[in-house]
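Let us work through a complete example step by step.
Step 1: write down the sequence.
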Amino acid sequence: KVINEGTIKLRYGRSLGYAQYGDLAGKPVFHFHGSGGSRLEHPLDESILIDLKIRLISTDRPGHGLSDFQPDRKLLDWPDDVLQLADHLGIDTFYVLGWSAGGPYALACAYKLKERVLAGAVVSGFAPPDRPDPVEGYSLFPRLFMFSARHFHLLIKLFRKMAYSQVSGGKDIKIDCLIPVDKKILEKPENYKLYMADIREGYRQGWQGIALDDIIINNPWGFSLEDIQVRIDIWQGEHDQNVPLNHGKYQHKKIPNSRFNVVQN
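Step 2: predict the structure and record it as tokens.
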């Protein structure tokens, strides 16, 4: 249940969309969605947030949901948006949480906003693409996707344009790229309904913002993991096919104050 949502106007005139869940008086956690997602990402069982006294602030990245598209943006532009949202909400210090493609954005905030970020968590988040052997553990399609994001942006844009046509057509999307345990979760109607609502909202404005996200996280990030000073908790699925286990291992190796948790599945 959304307890508060809306947009704010940033310094340069763009709108930034967000939604809040859980306990408004609780510990503030800024959540950064996965690929093609939106501010609608939140725990289906929101009693978790209430019990833990968490104020979850889920955001729309530029070109997703209610947030205006930002051409030529960089990964390190995002912390400035988050900082303005935190100031707007009257939040001094906070935590960051990034899932999948949102992981790099959480790490960027931990790096750039070290005076404001208390700690962070990355769940199945991508590691920097300029590490040794960045395609280790990937099947053919993710390898080609990463290569295209580095060298052939037109192919990424074409892929996302096709995905937008499918999403905007109102048809249910078949999920084939998940391991059995994850597929089983999405077989539950309530989980699938939330997933589809999240993706459709992510593509609300079109495909451009999602395509740029792909390009950003698959090119050098502009900072080193070794320079992150706050504590980062890393959570990784043992058999994840979309973000292989070595991503989490690499982050744990490079981030000085980190804890690595492997989920057996």
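Step 3: interpret the result. DSSP finds nine helices and eight strands in the chain.
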